[in-house]
Design brief:
The complex is a heterotetramer of chains A (about 350), B (about 325), C (about 650) and D (about 400). Chain A is about 30% helix and about 20% strand. By secondary structure, chain A is an alpha/beta fold. The chains are: A alpha/beta (about 350), B mainly alpha (about 325), C alpha+beta (about 650), D mainly alpha (about 400). Chains in contact: A-B, B-C, B-D, C-D. Chains B and C meet through helix 2, helix 5, helix 7 and helix 11 of B and helix 12 of C.
Chain lengths: ~350, ~325, ~650, ~400
């Protein structure tokens, strides 16, 4: 695998679902990439298609009813074109997944140890004792007290936080190179959340993994993300380095997202309006109906191309495009600790909303 | 309260239940006129003796004139020491009659139970796996067909077609045939088929509904993410949780079917099994044999329920023993 | 007085049939517990008073309205001219006059004194298709021709016997034909005068058919010897002097004299219809076509050892199917016909009757001069199995004296040896003296004995241990038979039947009487009797050759007759199909009095039911009309027509 | 895809709750009383005053005779009408909702149609068709459109063409050995099946519900004893017990129904208990308790209606068992042979299967369809009536 090539490269990923009332496109031509040792965060409200995107990478989504197009190059191989049997070799062994709700994530009828060693033994020819030893020390590593005796306990005998630790152990038992974490801490209370995040961070270095982290909580993003990809209604609005985006968010949606955070000087208000209907998404920019700077151009044609507005930072917004006036949108001064109070730039230029 | 204590509690309870049922049977039968006494009376009358006195002697001979509770106690003593007395209508000890009949019943009920316990859940999970597809409708259709068609009706038709017309299977059941021979398999093929179609329906339906829920459970997504193959996912991750609710209904279903269905299949295919033994014992009003067979079925039912409880707790670790 | 054992007539009775003398033929396969009994009526012989000589039957005096009906001595009711609505009405009206309550006809319906329609019930054996159809046909005919509303009810044979047919014997006295008659020793079948009744009331029943004893009609005195015979559940009071006629018959010293005496008895029975006689149904038996030996005669199967399949060489097996299980194979206590057949395969009895009803000696030859003293000459080549050695007269004498005549052992044959003096007169000879002469004694089957080793029975006799004797393993599994049976019993599986293997030293081979094939007998390697409950399975087994013979229901006679892999034989039976009408106090529940007690009313009922339609409809023509207490083919049938 | 907001079973209607005092009966109960009273009077009259053989309606000239079983059957019909059919009419929105759910399951609709036929046939049949008459001479007539070799029937009603006797419309499904018309016997068999279905379900439902709710609400050791008693009932070998009782005290359809339903309510009781335990945990029960509703009102107003959907489903799945048991007993020759049920017909025709198959096939297939119909109906009810299950599998 050439060094310069990213660990995971997703191009034009599209996932559609055929339901009773027409086809629904949850992910509509999304690209992103993850390098080894890097943590990429996909951010967006729930229903923005971020979970579907991650689950389409290794085709965990059931097809039918789902259809997945585009290319997902992992270590140079396009996973989507692989036959199921080969893809199965990669799941759990090369690419691991942890999910949001640890309570339901484990089968109540089997011991925790059995479920962890299962992940290992279906891929590698490892004897039971070896597998047990590896699992126990991993459980220990993820912070489960007296792991060797807890190995034979059942899921209902663990707390939420412990269960998530077990899930992490289960994911890492196969020494994966890429870890996809789909809102792993959302269901946990805040104190446990912090521990889990720090654990993930340490493990990332120890296992030299790439981490694709999905969350809607910008607090979490700030803490662990290297790069972030902002998704809305199935499309990428903005991507870039975490610090750049937090300092000077380009896309109005990102700006509003950041405003929701009190510690970033936002007023804590929510974003007016609701998500568009995925069955027939609006023309032009997906955020146009809820965007205060929306203009006629925003509501026609396709989602605007992503334009590099700063080194490593791209935004998909008409105003930055050719003939657009970025000053309308681009507002300086919004950054950590700076409380200019004013919400946005000179509001008199763009019509508030039509 | 710990597995050990729980098991003993259930076993004790099983013994109490069997005692109650046995007592009810005893009372029912002792209320019925005893044919042997009547026969003795007519016998004596025909020989010019005094019928009343002969009836009294016969009753004495059989110990029927002692007070009820004395008869009841030595009846219970006999029951639990397995001396079930002599069967008049079969001229052999009741115990021997029951074991001999059991030998034939076992030959078809063991394969029947195994097939039902294996095929039932498999077909159920399979049809849940491709819910609402034509495969699902076919499987449910088959299950309902088997469940709905009266087994004796189905039996006589199959016997006519395969026995009389095609002559593939013997019409009368040959007892002399060695148990594990092909000939025995042939002659038991149709009875077992009739019984399995009858019992598989209920099991299949329960397993289909139960496994449908587990199919979309989160741990299935985890399993897929771990790279577990669909086959293994179903075999382990869906099957075992499905067996939990299934086990409660499974044993109950099989027991209910065991006496009824087996009796009719034995009558239709002239298999000298336990069902027919009970039926003929009742027709001949052979008190000892009726009690013997009732005891047997009671023990089977009671042990069945016991197994059901134990299996239930073993299969589903979430159930702790205190709140059972 | 000879006593009878009651047992069931299993409908698959066909080959090697042992003619157990049965007073009661169940029209169904329900086994009735064997209860043999004695005649019990100390008939003191006719006192010569010339009571109404039954036969005159002349009408005249009690002529009803409409043309006066002339009844011959031997009237044949239920067939033209004595069938139909008018004949039935005339006879019924005669009965109305005799009865002190004024029943009458309101148009076509018979009405009680209060004016509502006469309603009676009729019982038939539950689960027996033919029995149900017959009952429904009778109900229809009585409805049309006598305007009686009959409800048909099914009942199980055993329960009918216990609750309706028999009763607690009470005794008592009553006037019969103007004479005082007392019931000295009442029996459950004749508990006393008409005032003594069974627990449950009933009007009519076709549950039981009775045996008419064509071989030795003398036995029929058990039914009709006056009002107090051993067997009279319906409480029939004969109006002719039955006792006198039966005692005359007993004096007869030759068959002609016997026939002479019985003509009058049977004419009276035809006239008085104690039981409404309907028909004699034949046994229809299907056989494997290449089986040589079965005949269409009452003694079908007596020469079983001479039967063979295909070539007259020892080969193949002879398999039969039966519907009812065997309760016991212990020869001393068995009273079932089906089990009788199973025992007969492995153990011969004293003698049998060949196809022209002549005595054929098996174990012993019987001879007599005066019909009172009978000598039994036992064959000398008879051997029990080890360790019991040769069969001698001592075995038989010991068996009779210590078992059949002992009161502690209720053996099946005990009623046959009551009042018979037995004495051993030689190593292979013994004599029996009867209380009164009976030239046809062998034909009553009373002197028919099973050979039982003395040493086997002795221990039980000393302790009078009945249960031990009944449960003895050697007796139950017929392990003592030596060379006394055509086959040896190899296995008795209680649920599925019996299996036998050929007996290589069968004694019959070196006797000189009988067909020459006996010298090779039996010509089958094996034999089996399997219990198959489902009639469809029995017939299926016959068709596919799994069974060599099986009983066929009348309605399938036609189709099996044309089926080329089954030959069908019609075997006549002595069992009749009758309507028993309850003369006793708890009979006739339609209104006051009891019209069943009146002869003309019973004649009206007999005339109201078309025998031919019944035979064609239910029995598919495989039965013959039944007018008096003898089948048409019996020597003692009153007429010698056709 | 949230279901459109409809008036839900478990909606708490406060004013309705406060108004329904103990004696203020809903019109359903009033209707029930008004119709059940004359019925009981007629019943008393028929059993006490008329002789065993005179018909009940003789005083008005009808010669129909009602046995005690018929009275009980009519009573259950009234019950079903007032408490099942009428409520569906009373709240149309809910009915429409359930009908929409139900319609999706095509086989269930077909089976509902079939059961409708059997129900109507069972009720109206015996009134318009006189009971099957035995005519010996026309035994074994083949069904219409079919023919049989002419030696089978004694005489052929239809025409005989080259050795084969053809069926006629006079006996659409042929005749039995005794000449009884199979079609009439099947119609009469429908009445028996309906009687079995309705009466057993009523008995099982009443005992099961009362036992279940009582033990759920009594709690503590009472609940323990009751549940242990249910254990005993469940492990009773019912079939064997029936054989025993039957043989000593005689078989009759009434006896069959009583014995079988007395042993069958165990499952329902246990089910209702668990259902009412789970329902009583729900908030709205606590809410109504706080507002002063007595235990009776809580059970009557909330627990039973909520459990109603599962009770109905459970019962429809019990009925096939009873129908099958009756047919099995008839086949064994133990059933009451005077009762013209399908089982009796199968048993009567079984030995003629090889040459007169229609005698067995007709009732067998009808019985098969009826049992199948009840199964499909039960399943469909399970999905349609059970909102939670519906939401779960969304």
């Amino acid at each position: 695998m050439a060094d310069d090539q990213p660990l995971l490269e997703v191009e034009n990923l599209t996932t559609k679902f055929s339901t009773d009332n027409g086809t629904l496109t949850a992910v509509d031509g999304v690209d992103f990439s993850v390098n080894t040792g890097e943590t990429v965060c996909i951010v967006g409200e729930s229903g923005s298609g971020k979970t579907v995107a991650t689950e389409s990478i290794t085709k965990i989504i059931n097809t039918p009813p789902g259809e997945i197009e585009g290319t997902v190059r992992y270590k140079g191989r396009d996973l989507l074109s692989l036959p199921e049997s080969e893809l199965r070799q990669i799941r759990g062994n090369e690419i691991a997944h942890i999910f949001q709700n640890p309570q339901e994530a484990m089968n109540h009828c089997y011991t925790v140890g059995w479920q962890i060693t299962e992940a290992l033994q279906i891929h590698q020819d490892v004897s039971d004792d070896e597998a047990r030893a590896k699992a126990v020390d991993l459980m220990d590593r993820v912070g489960i007290a007296n792991a060797s005796s807890r190995f034979d306990d059942y899921p209902h005998e663990f707390s939420g936080g412990q269960k998530q630790r077990v899930m992490i152990a289960m994911a890492l038992v196969g020494d994966p190179d890429l870890l996809i974490a789909d809102e792993p801490t959302t269901a946990l209370d805040v104190t446990v959340q912090a521990q889990i995040l720090r654990l993930l961070d340490d493990l990332q270095e120890e296992f030299e993994m790439g981490v694709l982290f999905v969350t809607h909580d910008l607090g979490v993003v700030a803490e662990i993300a290297d790069r972030i990809v902002v998704m809305y209604a199935g499309k990428v609005m903005e991507r870039g380095d975490v610090l750049d985006i937090f300092d000077h968010p380009g896309h109005p949606y990102t700006q509003q997202l950041l405003e929701c955070l009190p510690e970033f000087g936002g007023t804590g208000g929510g974003i007016p309006g609701t998500l568009p209907d995925p069955h027939d998404p609006p023309d032009g920019c997906r955020f146009a109906p809820r965007c205060e700077y929306a203009e006629e151009a925003c509501r026609t044609g396709e989602q605007p191309e992503e334009i590099e507005v700063a080194p490593g930072q791209e935004v998909s917004c008409v105003h930055y495009g050719p003939g657009g006036n970025p000053s309308i949108v681009r507002s300086e001064g919004l950054g950590p600790g700076d409380d200019t109070g004013t919400v946005d730039g000179d509001s008199e230029v763009g019509p508030a909303d039509d | 309260m710990g597995f050990g204590r729980y098991v003993t509690a259930r076993v004790l309870w099983a013994a109490v239940v069997s005692l109650i049922i046995v007592t009810v049977t005893f009372l029912l039968l002792s209320a019925a006129p005893n044919p042997a006494v009547q026969r003795a009376a007519t016998q004596a009358a025909l020989q010019g003796g005094d019928p009343a006195e002969a009836a009294e002697r016969a009753r004495e001979l059989r110990g029927l004139n002692q007070p009820l509770y004395v008869r009841y106690f030595d009846f219970i003593r006999n029951v639990y020491t397995l001396e079930w007395g002599w069967s008049v209508s079969r001229s052999q000890p009741v115990m021997e009659a029951v074991t001999q009949a059991l030998y034939y019943t076992a030959q078809y009920s063991i394969p029947w139970t195994i097939l039902t316990v294996i095929l039932g859940p498999l077909v159920g999970v399979y049809s849940a796996a491709n819910m609402y597809s034509w495969k699902d409708h076919a499987a449910t259709g088959f299950a309902f067909f088997g469940y709905a068609i009266p087994n004796f009706f189905f039996g006589i038709i199959l016997l006519l077609i395969f026995g009389v017309w095609l002559e593939w299977i013997p019409i009368t059941y040959k007892t002399g045939v060695p148990v594990f021979s092909v000939q025995n398999a042939i002659q038991l093929a149709i009875p077992v088929f009739v019984l399995v179609t009858g019992s598989i329906g209920a099991v299949m339906r329960v397993s289909r509904n139960e496994s449908a829920e587990f199919q979309n459970a989160d741990f299935m997504k985890t399993a897929k993410a771990k790279g577990v193959s669909p086959l293994r996912a179903y075999a382990y991750h869906v099957m075992r949780p499905t067996l939990v609710p299934l086990s409660t209904t499974l044993v109950g279903q099989l027991l209910a079917l065991f006496l009824g269905a087996s009796l009719l299949v034995e009558v239709v295919f002239s298999i000298p099994g336990l069902g027919r033994l009970t039926y003929e014992a009742l027709l001949a009003q052979d008190t000892n044999l009726v009690l013997g067979t009732t005891l047997f079925f009671t023990f089977v039912a009671v042990i069945g329920n016991l197994i059901e409880d134990l299996v239930f707790t073993v299969l589903d670790p979430r159930i702790s023993y205190d709140d059972r | 007085m000879p006593r009878r054992s009651i047992e069931d007539r299993d409908d698959s009775r066909h080959v090697g049939r042992r003619q157990w003398l049965s007073a009661l033929g169940l029209a169904g396969a329900v086994t009735l517990a064997g209860c043999s009994g004695n005649g019990g009526d100390g008939s003191d012989g006719g006192d010569g008073s010339d009571g109404m000589d039954g036969g005159d039957g002349s009408d005249g005096s009690d002529g009803g309205d409409g043309e006066s009906l002339e009844l011959s001595d031997f009237p044949k009711f239920g067939v033209d001219p004595l069938y139909g609505r008018d004949v039935a009405h005339t006879l019924a009206e005669r009965a109305f006059e005799q009865s002190e309550h004024d029943y009458s006809f309101d148009g076509d319906t018979m009405v009680t004194p209060e004016g509502d329609q006469v309603e009676l019930n009729i019982y038939h054996s539950a689960g027996q298709e033919t029995s149900q159809l017959t009952a429904e046909f009778i109900a229809q005919e009585l409805g049309q021709n006598l305007g009686i509303n009959v409800t048909v009810e099914a009942i199980d044979g055993t329960r009918f016997n216990n609750e309706y047919w028999t009763a607690e014997p009470e005794g008592g006295t009553d006037t019969v034909n103007g004479e005082e008659v007392t019931w000295e020793n009442p029996t459950p079948q004749n508990p006393g005068p008409q005032s003594v009744t069974s627990n449950e009331p009933w009007d009519m029943s076709i549950v039981f058919g009775l045996n008419t004893y064509p071989l030795n009609p003398l036995t029929n005195e058990v039914f009709f010897d006056g009002a107090t015979p051993f067997y009279n559940p319906v409480g029939y009071y004969p109006q002719f002097n039955a006792q006198e006629l039966f005692s005359e018959a007993r004096q007869a010293t030759s068959t002609d004299e016997l026939r002479e005496a019985f003509v009058e008895i049977f004419e009276n029975l035809a006239y008085e219809q104690p039981y409404i006689t309907l028909l004699f149904s034949d046994d229809i038996v299907g056989y494997n076509p290449d089986l040589e030996g079965p005949i269409e005669n009452f003694s079908n199967g007596w020469d079983l050892p001479a039967w063979y399949e295909g070539e007259p060489t020892v080969s193949g097996s002879y398999d039969t199917v039966t519907s009812a299980r065997f309760t016991t194979l212990n020869p001393l206590f068995n009273t079932e016909n089906g089990a009788g057949n199973a025992i007969a395969r492995a153990l011969d009895q004293g003698y049998t009757f060949d196809e022209n009803q002549d005595y054929f000696p098996l174990l012993y030859d019987m001879s007599t001069e005066d019909g009172e003293v009978w000598t039994f000459d036992v064959r000398e080549n008879l051997q029990f199995s080890e360790p019991y050695g040769q069969v001698t007269a001592e075995d038989f004498v010991y068996l009779i004296q210590e078992l059949h005549q002992a009161d502690w052992a209720p053996t099946a044959a005990s009623s046959s040896w009551d009042g018979v003096e037995v004495e051993q007169t030689g190593e292979f000879q013994f004599e029996a003296t009867l209380e009164s002469s009976n030239i046809l004694w062998p034909k009553t089957y009373d002197p028919l004995l099973y050979p039982i080793p003395k040493d086997l029975v002795q221990p039980y006799v000393e302790e009078e241990d009945v249960e031990g004797l009944q449960q003895d393993e050697e007796l139950l599994e017929l392990q003592f038979t030596g060379n006394l049976g055509a086959f040896e019993l190899t296995e008795w599986n209680r649920g599925s039947g019996t299996e036998y293997v050929r007996n290589d030293e069968y004694y019959l081979r070196d006797i000189d009487e009988g067909p020459d094939l006996f010298s090779e007998g039996p010509l089958f390697e094996e034999a089996s009797v399997s219990v198959v409950k489902e009639q469809a399975s029995r017939l299926g087994a016959l068709e596919t050759g799994e069974a060599d013979s099986a009983a066929i229901p009348p309605e399938q006679y036609e189709s099996y007759n044309q089926d080329d892999n089954v030959t069908v034989r019609q075997v006549p039976t002595p069992y009749n199909t009758i309507i028993s009408v309850n003369h006793r106090a708890n009979g006739w529940n339609a209104g006051p009095g009891n019209l069943f007690q009146l002869v003309p009313f019973r004649q009206a009922m007999a005339a109201a039911i078309s025998k031919q339609d019944l035979i064609d409809g239910v029995y598919r023509g495989l039965a013959s009309p039944h007018f008096t207490w003898q089948p048409r083919w019996s020597e003692f049938y009153p007429e010698t027509d056709g | 895809m949230a279901t459109e907001e409809s008036e839900r079973f478990d909606k708490v209607d406060w004013n309705d709750l406060s108004r329904s005092g103990r004696f203020d009966l809903s019109i359903n109960s009033i209707g029930m009383l008004l119709t059940a009273l004359p019925l009981t009077l007629l019943g008393v009259y028929s059993t006490a005053f008329t002789g065993p053989r005179t018909a009940t309606f003789e005083f008005i000239g009808l010669e129909q005779n009602l046995e005690s079983l018929d009275f009980f059957f009519i009573f259950t019909l009234l019950l079903a009408f007032w408490y099942l059919a009428l409520p569906l009419y009373q709240n149309p929105r809910m009915t429409r909702y359930y009908w929409k759910e139900f319609k999706r399951n095509r086989p269930a609709v077909v089976s509902l149609g079939w059961l409708g036929i059997v129900f109507v046939g069972g009720l109206v049949g015996p009134l318009i068709m006189d009971p099957p008459q035995q005519q010996l001479l026309i035994g074994y007539q083949p069904p219409v459109f079919t023919s049989v070799v002419d030696t089978t029937p004694a005489t052929c009603v239809g025409d005989v063409v080259n050795g084969r006797c053809f069926g006629t419309w006079q006996h659409p499904l042929g005749t039995t050995q005794g000449g009884k018309d199979v079609f009439t016997m099947i119609v009469y068999g429908m009445t028996i099946s309906m009687q079995i279905a309705f009466i057993t379900t009523t008995i099982v439902a009443t005992i099961g519900i009362s036992f279940g709710t009582l033990s759920a609400y009594a709690g503590g050791w009472i609940d323990e004893i009751m549940m242990r008693f249910v254990d005993i009932i469940l492990s009773f070998p019912t079939f064997l017990m029936f054989l025993l009782i039957l043989y000593i005290y005689g078989a009759g359809l009434g006896m069959f129904i009583v014995v079988f339903s007395l042993f069958a309510w165990g499952g329902t009781a246990r089910y209702i208990r668990s259902k009412s335990l789970s329902i009583s945990e729900e908030e709205f029960i606590k809410a109504s308790r706080i507002s002063g509703a007595s235990t009776y009102q809580v059970i009557r107003g909330h627990v039973v209606p909520n459990a109603a959907s599962s009770i109905i489903t459970q019962l429809t799945l019990l009925i096939p068992g009873f129908l099958l048991a009756e047919a099995q007993l008839a086949f064994l020759g133990i059933g009451d042979s005077a009762v013209p049920s399908w089982g009796q017909l199968i048993s009567a025709g079984r030995s003629d299967l090889s040459f007169a198959p229609w005698i067995v096939l007709a009732p067998g297939i009808v019985l098969f369809f009826t049992i199948l119909a009840f199964n499909f109906l039960g399943d469909a009810l399970l999905d349609a009536l059970n909102p939670e299950a519906e939401a779960e599998s969304e």
